[in-house]
């Protein structure tokens, strides 16, 4: 059942315009997938941390801090 806000009783939001819940399955851990599906900030932070870092940039850390 849905309330006026478009949120279901179990706390999950419906996909816009489709009336069904879409889950993300990005990891092999069910709890992690549930967190990424329900928390947009966790998804954003996970995507940023998943980006590769070049060797040149990663070696510059000590000179930038000094």
From TrEMBL:
Q: Which domain of life is it from?
A: Bacteria
Please identify the protein, giving its name as recorded. Answer: Uncharacterized protein
């Amino acid at each position: 059942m849905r309330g006026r806000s478009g949120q279901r009783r179990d706390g999950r939001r419906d996909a816009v315009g489709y009336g069904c819940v879409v889950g993300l399955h990005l990891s092999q851990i069910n709890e992690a997938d549930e967190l990424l599906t329900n928390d947009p900030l966790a998804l954003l932070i996970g995507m940023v941390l998943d980006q590769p870092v070049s060797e040149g940039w990663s070696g510059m850390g000590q000179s930038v801090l000094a």
